[in-house]
Amino acid sequence: MKTLPYYWRLSAFYLFYFGSIGAFLPYWALYLHTLGFNAVAIGELIAILLALKIIAPNISGWIADHTGRHIALVRLSSLLAALFFIPLLIVEQSYLWLALIIGVFSFFWHAALPPFEATTLAHLGKQAHRYSQIRLWGSIGFILTVTLFGWLFEYISVTLLPNLLIGLFTGIWLTSLLVPEKETAHQFLSSESFYQVIKQPSAIALFSVCFLMQASHGPYYTFYTIYLEDYGYSRNLIGQLWALGVLAEVGIFLVMHHLLTRFGLKHLLIISLALSGVRWLLIGYYVESLPILLFAQLFHAASFGLYHGVAMQLIRQHFADQHQGRAQALYSSISFGAGGAIGSLVSGYTWDNLGAQISYLWASLICVIAIWITWRWVGNE
User: Domain for residue 188, yes or no?
Assistant: First the structure.
């Protein structure tokens, strides 16, 4: 651990950034539900949040690659995200107002991560396979906040969520000030342009799989908390279930560098997709069984941890160092942005009209399609 450059400074940013996601993602739908919004409105508002991830990372990635000022961009984006979130603390929450503020805030929130990811890989250099040892602190941050907030909301109103979030967004900005700028070493150069690389069949297949994987998470990220609460689970227990999933993710991150050096990336990606499909079926059809829910949450190690670690390595292999900023941005926007937004939007419409089980069923079927694409076109680099 000590041989990794700026280990604790980089880790602190991930701790706060993904800690904010741990507070936001599991409880934002519950917050909107408490304000009186229905499933369709909740799905739309969360889709807006994720849709901005299609635009923001690509803009910040392009700026970062052309200026070389990755950390400066992270600091500015983090500060503006915190500032634009403040109006949610002081203004009455209507649908249009929430849509506007969340749209502006999330643009800068999403813009901060891709250039920071590129900075982390630049600091690691030839030790890039040990990225997961730093990234696991993001998972720890998620666990801490999702557990703490689940306990808190047993005693205080969930309408106080924005007040709690502003502290985490401030922490993101403050920790970004600790990380020095690092120019990409350009150890892997290519005469091909960025656009020539993304037109290759293997790259198209990879990003298609990333899109489908995150789309399959739509029912989970949007309605998991509400789903469990409808079946009588306490908010404290729901928070612990979210935390268990991310704890499993931490476990896979700890051994990821061993897996990456021993097994083919293609095979690991197929495994992550298959286990994700099983996970959605277990949650959708066995929600009344706590032991099965506990078991399903352990599969988060595959549906996020293993998947993300493999995707990062495939992207690094596909794209030269001078394209890493835009490559990370494209990965973020296509998967967590477009995939997440479409998944949330579709979930909002199917949840009320077809029910929770059908929503999780289509999520599982999407994973099957992604497996087929991976098997046919994603390389075994």
Answer: no
